[in-house]
Every structure is written in structure tokens, then in C-alpha cells.
Amino acid sequence: MLEDRTAVSSPTEWPAAYPQGYAVVDVETTGLARDDRIISAAVYRLDARGEVEDHWYTTVNPERDPGPVWIHGLTSEALEGAPLFQDIAGEFAARLAGRVLVAHNAVFDWQMIAREYARARSEAPVKHRLCTIALSKELRLPLPNHKLETLAAHFGVVQQRAHHALDDARVLAEAFRPSLRAAAAGGLRLPLHECRPLTEWQDRPAPLIGRQAGGSHGGGYGGYGGQRGGGWRPSRKRPACPYPNPGRYEVGKPLKQGMRVAFSGDTSVERDLLEDRATEAGLHVATSLSRLTSLLVTNDPDSGTSKVVKARQYGTPIVDEAAFGQLLGDVEPADA
């Protein structure tokens, strides 16, 4: 077990408003899109001060093609005898209940989990999530990037089996523990986000076995088909961005908190996930494009959509989804 490099000197100094427990989670999936499925899940339960209580792991039969086996290593044969999600939903819920869900890029894990529960006509008992990327930024850790292996190396945690849910959850738990103690020592407000249940599948037929097998899968997670048409995507009211707009994005420089970002057209990663990642990074997600927009993200800059046309007129910088994903990894903090 990793020794904590930052300790709180007295029990009375621990912030009273901090959560009473955490569930450090990692899920491996068939891909990144709205209809992709969980194929394995792991949970490390920690108490209020980050001490490990227990851990749990399971594989899950996704009832479809397992996706990028070369990444997660779980073949159709390996998953054939695994339980369905509805079979492990109760035990999974028991390990999440009453705790803050902690994950690396937490919005992704949360949405995947929430959708599985929606398909099972249920809800995950999670009220708040905490992203370790956001926490490392709040702590101003001197990291060259925000990959899990980079965070682990900073705290001296050895990763043994990347993209295996149990090992990824272990690594994240051991990196989160000293981060939590550093936050407590500095009286830092934890970057918690509300988790709302998703109901997209509760009135739709359950997925058929083998549905979409071999469909739009590409070479790796980034190549999976995402939202297409998306006419049933519910509108979402996001909290106001707390940072002032620093102006337009400049090519070759990082994004900065407060920048206004608009999206246009189809994306391989679902739009909600991209928008949530942008919001958690401190960016302002705009539904329309104006002279104040800092950046337009589109995979089809020649599409002629109204946003693309306005971006050309206003001189708004345009980047594709892949470039935007890279920029999200290192967003500059807003000016004090």
C-alpha cells in the first residue's frame, strides 16, 4: 500500500463538509458511444479519509461484440459465461450507495453506469461524482498531462495491467488517497458534480443479443460511432461557467478556462460526453455561435452548417474532435 506523502496533522483539521465515503470506480466498455456496454467493472471502497475498506470486480456479458479486444483483452469467449448487467446491478449498487463516485474522467464512467441501470429499469444510487483529473488540476499537481499513468507515476504507484478494470481502479485509488489528504490539508473544496439518473432506455425495448455486433466499430476507442441524428437527445441546462471569457483560442496554445466552445455535426464520442468534459474543464459550452465564441469543434469543416458558416465569417478558430480531445487534457486555469 502506498504511503501518503501528505498527511493531515490533526483529526480536527479534516474538513467537516467532506463526503463520508468514496467508491473509486473503473469500467471497461465495448466503446464510447451511447449504445455501448460495460464489459467489466471494479470498485475500491474508501472511507471518509481515504482508507481502503474493500474491493470488488466482475466481468459483464454485454450481449454484443466486445469491441476493442486489443485494448481491454476481453474476448467474446471470455465474456460468454459472465453475468448480465442486471444480474450484478444489485451488488454494484450496494458498493456505490452513500458514496461519492470517483473515477478518472468521471463523467464517462458515470454515464456508462447510469445507462446500464436505465436499461435494467433501475437507477444507480449515486448523488455525486469526483473526477481525479479535475482534482489534480485543483491541486495544481506538476503533471505533463492528465493520463492515469502520469498521475500514478507522480505518486509512485506501479501500474501492472492497464485497461484491466480491477488494476485501473487500484491504481486510481492509490493515487486518489494522497490527493484527498492534500486537499484536506489545504482546506480545498472538492470538485464534486451532481449525478442525475438517465432515463433514455426506460421506455425503449431492451437491446437484442448480438445487436450492432461488428457494426460501426473502428480502430480503437476513438473510432466508435457516436450520436447520429440524435433527435431524441434531451435538452440539458448546464450551470453557468464561473470564469470570464479570455477570448479566442489561438492555434498552438492551450485552451483556457472560460473560453466559449461550440460544437457542430456528428461526433464519434457522444456529444453529451464531450460537452460534460468541456464543462468540467472550466469551459463555457455554447449552444450557438457568435463573435464571442472562442472555438468551434466539428469533424466536417466544409459542411456548410450555420455554425461553420458563421465561424468563417467571424474568423472563429475551428478544430476537429480529436484535436479538441487533446486540448482538453491540459486546459489553463483562469486568471486569478
* SSE sequence, one letter per element: EEEHHHEHEHHHEEHEEHEH
Q: Helical residue percent?
A: 25-40%
Shape: globular
CATH topology of the largest domain, what is it called?
Nucleotidyltransferase, domain 5
Would you identify the CATH H-level superfamily of the largest domain? Ribonuclease H-like superfamily/Ribonuclease H
Number of strands: 10
Give the name of the CATH architecture of the largest domain.
2-Layer Sandwich
Percentage beta strand: 15-25%
Q: Can you tell me the residue ranges where pLDDT is under 50 for at least 5 consecutive residues?
A: 1-11, 201-235
Sheet with the most strands, sense and barrel status: 6 strands, mixed
Arithmetic mean of pLDDT: 83
Placed side by side, the strands forming the largest sheet appear as 3-2-1-4-5-6
Number of domains: 2
Number of helices: 10
Q: Structural class from helices and strands?
A: alpha/beta
Distance between the termini: 37 Å
CATH class of the largest domain: Alpha Beta
| Computed Rg | 20 Å
Region (Disordered): 214-249
Keywords: Exonuclease, Hydrolase, Nuclease
Organism: Streptomyces galbus
Biased composition (Gly residues): 214-232
Give the SSE layout:
Blueprint: E1 21-29, E2 38-47, E3 52-59, H1 69-72, H2 76-79, H3 85-96, E4 100-103, H4 106-119, E5 128-131, H5 132-138, H6 148-154, H7 165-185, E6 192-194, E7 260-264, H8 271-280, E8 284-286, E9 295-298, H9 306-314, E10 318-319, H10 321-328
Parallel strand pairs: 1-4, 4-5, 7-8, 7-9, 9-10
Antiparallel strand pairs: 1-2, 2-3, 5-6
Helix pairs in contact: 6-7
